[in-house]
Amino acid sequence: MKLFAIALFVCCTLIASSASADTPDGASIVQRGNGHGVAPCMACHAADGGGQAAAGFPRLAGLPQAYLRKQLDDFANGSRTNATMQPVAGGLSEAERDAVAAYYSKLPIPPGAPASASSAASVQLAQTLATRGRWPKGVPACEQCHGPAGIGVGDHFPPLAGQPALYLGNQLHAWQQAARRNDPLQLMQSIASKLNDADIAAISAWYAAQPATLAKEQQP
Amino acid sequence: MKSPQWILLTAVLALTACHRTEPQAALPAPHAPATSASAPKVAARFEPPAESSMPNDDFGKQIELGRLIFSDTGRYAKAYVGNALTCENCHLDAGRLAHSAPMWGAYPMYPAYRAKNHRVNTFAERLQGCFQYSMNGKAPPLGDDVLVALEAYAYWMSKGEPIGVAPPGHGYAKLPKPTQAPDYARGEAVFKRDCALCHSDNGQGQQVAGRTVFPPLWGAQSFNWGAGMERLDNAAGFIKANMPLGRGNTLTDQDAWDVAYFMDAHERPQDPRFKNSVAETRKAYHDTPYSLYGVAVNGKVLGEGSGHL
User: Fold this and answer.
1) Closest residue in A to B251 (Cα–Cα)
2) Which of A51, A81, B18, B178 to pair with A179, CA 20 to 30 A apart?
3) Which neighbouring-strand residues pair with B172?
4) In this predicted model, which residue has the larger pLDDT, B2 or A211?
5) What are phi and psi of A207, to 5 degrees?
């Protein structure tokens, strides 16, 4: 009987340790895919997680883990739609989504790509929307939720600074057309519905040109 | 707490429906019909001058300083601020937004007698109160640059308005009285559903890089028991018109009253006018069903815990 107990203990220990060995490795999925048909994330989001500005693929490096996880879940369950990302997220197990989100959240923020120049009028429009909003139309400043210089706040308000202009513009248009609907409290759908195309172009280009981290002199 | 207080409230409301605005408006405000869709009317609202029209001279510099104080109070009026709030947290759009206690709604109404301190107050003295109560700090002395700049800003913003007439959109939206007495548990449910995303489950808001992005709603870093926002009518009106940010007028009136009650049923720094006891201070300054100061909620008398935040 005692022998049986020891054998049982050993078996349990082995099972437990093999289970932990099976915990998905975020780095491996990002670099090589998950071995079950999901392509490596870095194919689109770049080896350093910085994204691809020209294609509108967003930076993932340094984004909040909970935000990344929620987006993967939302792609998987269809509440956020994207022809590329839905099969990817749907092909990842829950544990794999956890691992990928954890991996990217811990990656250092890579230096941003040089941004294209905007007209002075566009810059001024964007600065106003970013820092003051358009309250007579019920539009809060972007900073009021996404933080000073758009560096992001907490788990629900992702950074805007340094994201590709094409990505930001695509998302704002998607909110506006209700093609993207996974925003908490419909905050972004409401805001985007009050913006016009010129606003979206200006604010997307402006945030793309902002540094992803606060400069020393901007910190209190 | 529930019933006695709110039976009283209903009775008092019926008798003194106009008692609560401060300063007392010269004209009685027309009351909206008591429906849940009480979105404030937008007609004939005063439009403050565009910011781009600030004069480009020495006077303009003071106006601009006033605006900066509004948006980043802890930086530009540091000596007088005792919490993590800014003016703009309660006066949205740097004090320009209707139904968010805009400066153009307040400036033309002073001097005014205020029950708050039983005296006629100048506008500068009214501003001192903001620092003592809402900012839980110290009153800047009269003539201090901070007060001069804020007054210059409010004056500039009010250009062209009649004096002594409360303009539509002044103060906070006046909600019809709630159909059900505001309730902590219902308010908590509203808070979790619609507020905690930004203000956090513990009501302490969110900071990033040392800046307050979402303000703390109670506790040591929020407004004290002397602030206007501790009154349920002010809080409910502000919340209804402005929260969640960018989605004002989407909560029902009942939700706004309930969540205002929930917020104001939390402990916060002591009223600087405190004298002898919470009960005595309530009698002197909070003798209204709209204040929970000195009222027992969930077994604790609010105001008694101010020293242990």
Assistant:
1) A185
2) A51
3) B100
4) A211
5) -65, -35
Nearest to A187 among B75, B93, B247 (CB): B247
What beta strand segments (E) does B71-166 contain? 112-114, 119-121
pTM of structure:
0.87
Task: Please name each of the domains of chain B with its CATH number.
Answer: 2-20+172-308 (1.10.760.10), 51-157 (1.10.760.10)
Instruction: Report how far apart the first and last C-alpha atoms of chain A are (Å, whole number).
Output: 68
- A124 and chain B: CB distance < 8 Å anywhere? no
Contact between A209 and A119 under an 8 Å Cβ cutoff? The reply is no
| Residues in B touching A154 (Cβ below 8 Å) | 206, 208
A193 neighbourhood in chain B, CB within 8 Å: none
* Region of residue A62 (left: phi > 0; alpha: psi -120 to 50; beta: else): left
Mutate to test the interface with B, among A125, A128, A131, A157 (most CBs of B within 10 A): A157
Chain A nearest CA to B265, separation (Å)? 24
Q: Which domains does chain A have, with CATH numbers?
A: 25-106 (1.10.760.10), 120-218 (1.10.760.10)
B54 close to B135: Cβ distance less than 8 angstroms? no
Q: What integer pLDDT is reported at residue A112 of this predicted model?
A: 73
A109 interfaces chain B, CB cutoff of 8 Å? no
The DSSP secondary structure of chain A, one letter per residue, reads: -HHHHHHHHHHHHHHHHHHHHTS--HHHHHHH--SSSPPPTHHHH-TTS--BTTTTBPP-TT--HHHHHHHHHHHHHTSB--TTHHHHHHTS-HHHHHHHHHHHHHSPPPPPPPPPP--HHHHHHHHHHHHT-BGGGTB--THHHH-GGG--BTTTB---TTS-HHHHHHHHHHHHTTSB---GGGHHHHHHTT--HHHHHHHHHHHHTS-SS--GGG--
With beta carbons less than 8 A apart as the criterion, state whether B96 and B48 touch: yes
Model confidence over A99-108: pLDDT tens digits?
999 999 999 9
Task: Work out the angle between the directed axes of helices B58-71 and B145-157 (0-180°, nearest 10).
Answer: 100
pLDDT digits (tens, 9 = 90+) for B18-46: 333 333 333 333 343 344 445 544 456 89
Minimum-distance CB partner of A190 among B209, B210, B247: B247
User: A192, A204 in Cβ contact below 8 A?
Assistant: no
| A1-5, A37-41, B174-178, range with the lowest pLDDT | A1-5
On whether ipTM exceeds 0.95, the answer is: no
- B232: distance to nearest CA of chain A, Å? 24
What band does A151 get if pLDDT is binned at 50, 70 and 90? very high
pLDDT for position A94: 96
CA–CA min distance B197, chain A (Å) = 7
Other beta carbons within 10 angstroms of residue B254's beta carbon come to 19
